[in-house]
Specification:
Elements: H1 2-11, H2 18-37, H3 45-52, H4 56-84, H5 86-105, H6 110-138, H7 142-173, H8 178-181, H9 183-197, H10 211-232, H11 240-262, H12 276-306, H13 311-317, H14 319-358, H15 368-396, H16 402-432, H17 444-450, H18 454-464, H19 466-501, H20 516-524, H21 527-533, E1 535-537, E2 557-559, E3 568-569
Antiparallel strand pairs: 1-2, 2-3
């Protein structure tokens, strides 16, 4: 009991519950680093290419190794955290992320950098679902949890949007490896802070962990995401390198689902998908990312190649989107209570669709006010949608399945992003390429090469020179803007479909009464020690007179069943949330 009492004293703060928010800060900083690393490399690619001279295939793997590995391992580590402890997995992720960052920063060969990026993906897969499942454990009250999830989702948006700005600054002032080196001191700080401040929690621990099922899920997601990314890169859909991974991945995922339904102790409780709110929330996350991630990549090209902005200027132009996302996260809990999940997700989709349609007014000349208004509406609408979808999904999952539910949410995010890049990239290419046919004075070979991308079209035009080069340059700009408009219309259609899907969500935010002693126990107790010992000291709960109990014996204990993930007085029939 001494160990449990010490842990409780260590986590107790003067604020009477403030430690939950300290935990949230640690979790958000963890997520910020992972989200930032997903985009910080983009602006470093030209410098990296000049230094390491990777082949086109190696460069593709340098960029894609991190999201591919991270997406494929989310279910594995999310469910592992439910079994062995979420904090334990998170701390291991910190260490691996820092080590991989050091290897990546000092890499002198493309193969080393690819391996380091893959290790970063493993570390990211350990960190991402653990942050959300720990958040679920330390915020038992849905109202507070909604606020925490709003901050959590806003942090992810901040990290992704800050990556290009930070990366551009570091590359301009140092070298490409500095975009990784910045992770090391932060992870060195997070390791002791996480061990000191984060509580341990577990979910269902009965029965063996399904190692084969976890590997099947990892391989299945890897195959699907790899195939989708190849489609997005323009590979033929029926090519073996594209169709093979897609079919193999889909088959493994089908076998994984069948295996989980038959096992007495599944990795993921498939009954979650029988709940309309859970399934709809997952679908809304996929659809939101499907509609917008590929569009974001195209918008970055527009800002740089059409408007001629530098990487840093491009990042600064996107900051209104980040600030709007922060505002949506900060007000999300209040909005969710007033509107309910159904109307909030629906209105979020509609607002985002309106922002996308407003951006159709973009042309070949800079319109800063239009872009700023459009990005503000886009950021607020997208964050509103993602916040409410994540909150509904996590609230539908029981506490013991928090890691698996978080992994499903993050995997759906990654799958939506990958499919969005492929889908909208294909739409963009289909609308862009016809505009370069029949340009006066441009040979067929040069015109075909120019259809690969706008950047390559500029290079071909520069080599041609003269009137033909100018004509190709003008035609490429016009074709790109036209393709962007078509892509925006398709994206808006997907978002309106999401608004229709949202009608399956609950109309009101149901907040079951939570025993105040439960929240107090979360503040005062190291859950890891309580689970290991099977009890939580009763001094953390008020006695009949309202004063804290001082007894420490077995009769004055609060039982924490490891298989239920809840805290309740021993022998009490009080229901948990």
């Amino acid at each position: 009991m001494a160990r449990t009492n010490t842990a409780g004293a260590r986590l107790r703060t003067a604020g009477g519950g403030a430690n939950r928010w300290v935990v949230l800060v640690v979790l958000c900083v963890s997520l910020l680093l992972v989200a930032l690393d997903s985009t910080v490399l983009h602006v470093a690619v030209p410098s990296l290419t000049e230094d390491l001279h990777p082949s086109s295939t190696a460069l593709l793997w340098i960029v894609d190794a991190y999201p591919l590995i991270c997406a494929s391992l989310l279910i594995l580590f999310g469910t592992l955290g439910d079994r062995v402890g979420r904090r334990r997995v998170l701390l291991l992720g910190y260490g691996l992320f820092g080590l991989a960052s050091a290897i990546a920063a000092l890499a002198t060969a493309p193969e080393v950098l690819i391996g380091a990026r893959a290790l970063l993906g493993v570390g990211g897969a350990m960190i991402m679902p653990a942050t959300l499942s720990i958040l679920r454990a330390v915020f038992p009250d849905r109202r507070e949890r909604a606020t925490a999830i709003g901050i959590w989702t806003a942090t992810a948006a901040i990290g992704a949007a800050t990556g290009p700005v930070l990366g551009g600054f570091l590359v301009e002032h140092f070298w490409w490896g500095s975009v990784f080196l910045v992770n090391i001191p932060l992870m060195a700080l997070m390791l002791p802070l996480g061990r000191l401040l984060l509580p341990e929690s577990r979910g269902e621990t009965d029965g063996p962990w399904d190692v084969l099922g976890a590997l099947m899920a990892a391989a299945g997601v890897l195959g699907v995401v790899l195939g989708v990314k190849r489609l997005g890169a323009g590979d033929p859909p029926l090519a073996l390198a594209t169709l093979g991974p897609l079919l193999l991945g889909a088959a493994l995922l089908v076998l994984f689902v069948r295996r989980q339904r038959r096992r007495p102790y599944p990795l993921i409780d498939m009954k979650l998908f029988a709940r309309p709110a859970f399934t709809t929330s997952v679908g809304c996350v996929v659809l939101a990312m499907l509609a917008l991630v590929g569009l974001q990549l195209i918008a970055v090209q527009y800002l740089q190649l059409i408007l001629g902005l530098s990487p840093v200027e491009t990042g600064l132009r996107l900051l209104p989107l980040t600030f709007a996302a922060m505002a949506a996260g900060a007000t999300g809990s209040y909005t969710l209570r007033r509107l309910g999940p159904r109307r909030m997700v629906c209105w979020g989709f509609l607002l985002t669709a309106g922002a996308v349609l407003l951006l159709v007014l973009m042309g070949q000349h800079d319109r800063p006010l239009l872009l700023t208004v459009g990005f503000i509406l886009l950021g607020f609408g997208l964050q509103t949608t993602l916040f409410s979808a994540y909150e509904s999904m996590l609230s539908e999952a029981p506490p013991e399945s928090a890691g698996g539910a978080a992994a499903i949410g993050e995997t759906s995010y990654q799958l939506g992003a990958g499919m969005g890049t492929a889908l909208l990239g294909s739409v963009m290419n289909a609308a862009y390429a016809p505009g370069l046919s029949g340009v006066p004075g441009v040979p067929d070979g040069a015109a075909k090469a120019a259809t690969n991308s706008l950047g390559e079209a500029y290079q071909v035009a520069a080599r041609l020179g003269g009137a033909a080069g100018d004509a190709l340059h003008h035609a490429a700009r016009h074709a790109f803007v036209n393709g962007l408009h078509v892509t925006l219309f398709v994206s808006a259609g997907l978002l309106l479909t999401g608004a229709l899907m949202a009608v399956r969500l609950p109309r009101v935010m149901e907040c079951p009464a939570v025993d105040p002693r439960l929240a107090d126990a979360v503040d005062a107790v190291d859950v890891r020690a309580g689970v290991d010992a099977g009890v939580v000291p009763a001094r953390t709960l008020p006695g009949p007179d309202g004063e804290p109990r001082t007894g420490g014996g077995a009769a004055d204990a609060v039982r924490v069943p490891a298989t239920r993930g809840r805290t309740e007085p021993a022998g009490s029939a009080t229901p948990s949330h």
